[in-house]
Amino acid sequence: MLITAGLFAITSILVGGVFINVNNLQQQTANMEKLQNDGRYMVEKMGREIRGRELDYEATLPSAEGKVDRLVFKEDEAGEIWQLAYDAEDFSAKIFITTVNPNNTVSASLNASDVGVKNLQFIVSPVFNPYDDDTLNDYVYQPEITVLMTLYNKNTSSRHYKELRLQTTISSKVYH
């Protein structure tokens, strides 16, 4: 009877340990899937805006390396100015839409409430305005934006915490 109780206790401890490990692994996998899904959505949404809008080089003002934390696009046919930017206050990537007449700005977060953005940077290439007739000469430049961001899980234990770094380059479809 004592041997049976001992074997049962050892088996219960082993099965319990396996169950806890499998449960932790499942939670980590679910957190990584959430980051990947959110990241895919964010990159696709940013890509649609970058491909379909003309970048306002004067308002974006890329540095010598082309790095910026905000993309500003020129006014569209609906009288709206769109921006993609990092909001450090609530760790999110946002779209800002400003209507010119009347002057009103609304914003929407691209990431889910349980996913945070540690950083969001854009690298603009070329760093000069390719839409300026003086720079065109014999070659037509197609603007490219490289998006760099790090996503992480909010409201999760340190044991299940995950980060995901994303990088992609998107070409504008707007030519002059």
The strand line-up of the biggest sheet is 1-6-7-8
Strand content: 25-35%
Number of helices: 3
Structural class: alpha+beta
Low-confidence stretches: none
Mean pLDDT: 87
Question: Quick one: how many beta strands?
Answer: 8
Distance between the termini: 87 Å
Shape: elongated
Number of domains: 1
The whole-angstrom Rg is 24 Å
Largest sheet descriptor: 4 strands, antiparallel
Helix/strand order: HHEEEEEEHEE
**What fraction, in percent, of the residue positions are helical?**
25-40%
Description of the structure:
18% of the residues are buried. This protein has helices spanning 2-52, 57-60, 133-136; strands spanning 67-68, 70-72, 80-87, 92-99, 104-109, 115-125, 144-153, 163-171. It has 176 residues and is of the alpha+beta class. It is elongated. The protein has one domain. The protein has 3 helices and 8 strands. Strand 3 and strand 4 (92-99) form a beta hairpin. The protein has a 4-stranded antiparallel beta sheet, with helices on one face.
